[in-house]
Design brief:
The complex is a heterodimer. Chain A has a two-stranded antiparallel sheet with strand order 1-2. Chain A is mostly helical. Chain A contains 16 helices and two strands. The chains are: A mainly alpha, B alpha/beta. The interface of A and B includes residues 212 and 227 of A. Chain A: Its main location: membrane.
């Protein structure tokens, strides 16, 4: 694209505005990383299906997979917003633990197994999550401390406080209404936890892609100074985004309590990194300004499907780490090459760039 | 008639540096005024002071004849003034329409609107009309701005500014990073903006460009306005003379006082 006058047109004539180039949806879709990563997911599923047949490609297997990623999916929504602002939130796992301890303590003191007890716990978990997130956001936006440091600190503090509150011993007093919700309830044929996660994903997607809040999230990550100059209250927005991430961690805490029937004080140390990996694999740029909830969903499924597949095929599950790590690095590499190509003005669909990654690099030299 | 915007005796110091020293400025409606001066002459500082980006130590502002104080860029926007910064302040990942309405999204009607949903169709139609009016070279309204040429980006930033400014647009070095064709497009755009009745303040280093589009030229030196001259009949030599102080007795005096 350039402003060079088309041949045959007198240079003085202003270039006529063409009907805005409506790139075919296919072409535009092909340029989204989430689409080619979806292709990777499909290939993985096809490979395992070929190897293990219906054992892998069964409803129960995918039901299990979706249950395994439900909590991460909820966290992933908040993380997607945060990373699009070119931030990072390392504290989500610890905030989840802290919130689940708060919720468990509240439910313990209220007593009983009914929904009213659970509601008190849910309220407590959400409030605790939002408070942690807002604190993170405040320190990042107002005190100008880098997000990596703020949330690294919060990771440590939240986990530490959770251990102080419990003496390091998990609380098991989760009302039955909550654990039953996970075990027995299916909504529209989907187990309850993944259903909740799905709702959160859909709401997150709508907010990110259709509302002003989402638009500002992209703008802040794309050009913070520019966003300030057009009058966006960037500080307030950052605080809200981190509070959203905290709220997601609070809701994740409720889901984790329902899933395991206990707090998981020692069990969330890698949650933050797993969620970040999923978000980045899904095409959300670590440099900000770009990303989608759909990509995050795909990014969540890749490690989960690999894990389930390895178990069924009989490969040691340890290989999952090897595979996920490789996909992560490859995803970011392709993302960067695609970005560089876009800056050079090439509109070559990115999955072709992937196949010809070496060729694509040459003209840059 | 009083000038559209007038500044009298603006001063502002940063530590020991007097960035603005009794600087004055004025512009009429529908006029292109070029603001020139060497690096560090105070052009950008003056524009910041005029648009609420920088509080001044002393001096008065008059808007349409009435004294005003402008506390924030937001207030300047509401008065009908917009600045196109040198870095354009566009979000590279967003498309031209999204950029144009950034911070001023048109909400959808009813409940959805109050929930923060945006009327994309209306924004797009308005943006297309805005670009068409300026005879722009922006070809795609769906591609991210980051993938576009410098000239196209400049144009998007200008269209955004004039869509919201009905009084004055400040352009900070709009042609600094552009090629020949793109520069001419921007200069044409400036003329069209003026023809719409919007005043343009053009900061530039390029004397030929300034002489080409400006109606009046105000020369800054050492934080103050040292000369105002009509573009017609003025030569590059005269401008350079005023900029460097060779022509101006006032600056010589000021220098003597300073030492």
């Amino acid at each position: 694209m350039s402003v060079i006058t088309p041949p045959g047109q007198a240079p003085d004539q202003q270039a006529v505005i063409e009907p805005p180039a409506r790139q075919s949806y296919l072409r535009r879709a092909a340029n989204l990383q989430s689409v080619w990563i979806l292709g990777v997911l499909v290939v993985i599923i096809a490979a395992f299906s070929a190897a293990a047949g219906t054992k892998f490609l069964s409803t129960s297997n995918f039901s299990l997979i979706s249950q395994n990623i439900a909590v991460w999916a909820v966290l992933g929504v908040g993380m997607t917003f945060v990373i699009i602002t070119s931030g990072i939130d390392l504290s989500i796992g610890s905030v989840l633990v802290f919130s689940s301890v708060i919720a468990a303590k509240i439910m313990e003191s209220v007593g009983g197994d009914g929904w009213s007890t659970a509601a008190a716990g849910i309220g407590g978990a959400l409030a605790s999550g939002i408070a942690w997130g807002a604190l993170n956001g405040f320190l990042i936006a107002k005190a100008k401390i880098p997000p990596l440091i703020v949330t690294l600190g919060a990771l440590s503090v939240a986990l530490g406080l959770a251990q102080v509150l419990t003496g390091g011993i998990d609380i098991r007093s989760v009302p039955e209404s909550l654990t039953d919700f996970n075990t027995y309830i299916k909504i529209l044929g989907i187990p309850a936890l993944p259903f909740v996660a799905l709702i959160v994903l859909i709401i997150g997607g709508i907010v990110l892609h259709k509302t002003k809040f989402g638009r500002y999230t992209y703008a802040v990550g794309s050009n913070e100074l520019g966003a300030r100059r057009v009058g966006i209250n960037v500080d307030r927005h950052l605080i809200l985004v981190y509070a959203l991430s905290g709220a997601c961690a609070g809701l994740g805490a409720v889901l984790a309590l329902a899933q395991f029937g206990t707090t998981t004080i020692a069990g969330q140390s890698l949650t933050n990194l797993n969620v970040i990996a999923a978000v980045v694999i899904g095409g959300t740029s670590i440099f900000g300004g770009e990303g989608s909830i759909f990509g995050t969903v795909v990014g969540l499924f890749i490690p989960a499907v690999l894990q389930a597949g390895f178990v069924i095929v009989g490969v040691e599950a340890f290989w999952q780490g090897v595979a996920v790590g490789s996909v992560l690095v490859a995803a970011v590499y392709v993302d960067q090459s695609r970005r560089a190509a876009a800056l050079r003005g090439s509109s070559r669909p990115s999955f072709l760039a992937l196949l010809g990654a070496k060729k694509a690099k040459e003209p840059a030299r | 008639m009083a000038p559209l915007l007038e500044a009298r005796g603006l001063s502002r110091s940063f530590g020991h540096v007097r960035a603005l020293d009794d600087a004055s400025f004025d512009i009429e409606a529908g006029e292109v005024v070029a603001l020139i001066g060497d690096n560090g002459a105070g052009k950008s500082t003056l524009v910041k002071a005029l648009t609420g980006n920088l509080p001044v130590d002393s001096g008065e502002l008059y808007f349409e004849g009435a004294p005003v104080t402008i506390h924030s860029p937001h207030q300047a926007s509401e008065m009908g003034m917009e600045v196109v910064y040198q870095d354009l302040a566009l979000a590279p990942h967003l498309n031209p329409v999204q950029n144009m309405f950034l911070g001023r999204e048109i909400p959808r009607k009813g409940l959805l609107g109050s929930l923060g949903f945006m009327d994309e169709k209306k924004m797009r139609a308005t943006a297309e009309a805005g670009f068409a009016e300026l005879g722009g070279t922006v070809r795609s309204f769906t591609a991210p701005v980051g993938a576009m040429s410098g000239g196209q980006r400049q144009q998007i930033a200008i269209v955004r500014a004039i869509s919201w400014a009905d009084k004055i647009v400040f352009l900070d070095e709009p042609t600094a990073a552009l090629g020949v064709v793109q520069t001419r497009n921007v200069l044409d755009t400036i003329k069209r903006v003026r023809d719409k009745g919007i005043a343009v303040v053009l900061i530039s280093h390029s004397m030929p460009h300034v002489l080409q589009v400006a109606d009046r030229i105000q020369v800054m030196r050492l934080g103050t306005r040292v000369a105002t001259m009509p573009a017609e009949g003025t030569t590059v030599e005269q401008l350079v003379g005023a900029m460097t102080g060779a022509l101006d007795s006032q600056t010589v005096k000021r220098k003597e006082n300073a030492s």
